[in-house]
Amino acid sequence: MIALVVLEEFGGTKKHFKTGDLIFKEGNQPLYYHQIISGEVKMNNFNDEGKEFIQGIFYKDQCFGEPPLFTDQVYPANAVAVTDCEIITITKDKFLELLKNNPDISLKVIKNLSQRLYYKSVMAAEISSQDPEHRVLRLIDYSIEQFHFKKENAGFLINFTRQQIADLTGLRVETVIRAIKSLEKKGDLKIINRKVYR
């Protein structure tokens, strides 16, 4: 997203998180811009019954949690390290200064936010009206495009667990497993050594 050398010029600090570490908590005041150097991060919420809903999963070179930096509102979700991570952060003031001084980077940030807003709109419509197979396939297709999943001989390797697909689509894991098996029978997906390919 933003070159590390630029973030370092604006006081960027590298931090390490272990799998499962909380990076920031829902309801906290946003103080920093976060960008992943290595690893994987998810943003999540839990409903009253304790079921997790994943708002998004983020990978190397992606930023997360930045919308509240512009609105002076609290974080709407938690950020949790899915794997061991290295993350670079800069303070909110320095981030806004960076954007003011670099219009090209500002446009990249706007485009990134717009893509996420588009994804949220698409998934909200899918979750409210479509059957499980359609939801799973739509998530997979969108993720291939946005996260640049690796193409192998069998197709695009879907880098989500069944649990993550469930948490991203609002479905139960059992429903996701049935949907994936059905999509495999229809030829829309392949399952090789328990890995899902499109």
Using only C-alpha atoms, the radius of gyration works out to 18 Å
Q: What is the level-2 CATH architecture name of the largest domain? A: Sandwich
How many domains? The number is 2
Tell me the series of helices and strands, N- to C-terminal. HEEEEEEHEEHHHEEHHEE
Report the structural category: alpha+beta
At CATH level 3, the topology of the largest domain is Jelly Rolls
Low-confidence stretches: none
Main β-sheet, in a few words?
4 strands, antiparallel
Task: Write out the strand line-up for the largest beta sheet, numbering strands in chain order.
Answer: 1-8-3-6
Q: What is the count of DSSP helices, taking H or I runs of 4+ residues?
A: 7
Average of pLDDT: 91
The CATH superfamily title of the largest domain: Jelly Rolls
The helix content, as a percent range, equals 40-55%
- State the end-to-end CA separation: 26 Å
CATH class term of the largest domain: Mainly Beta
Number of strands: 12
The general outline is: globular
Strand content: 25-35%
Question: What descriptive keywords fit this protein?
Answer:
Jelly Rolls, 198 residues, DNA-binding transcription factor activity, globular, Arc Repressor Mutant, subunit A, alpha+beta, DNA-binding, transcription regulation, WH_DNA-bd_sf, four-stranded antiparallel sheet, 7 helices
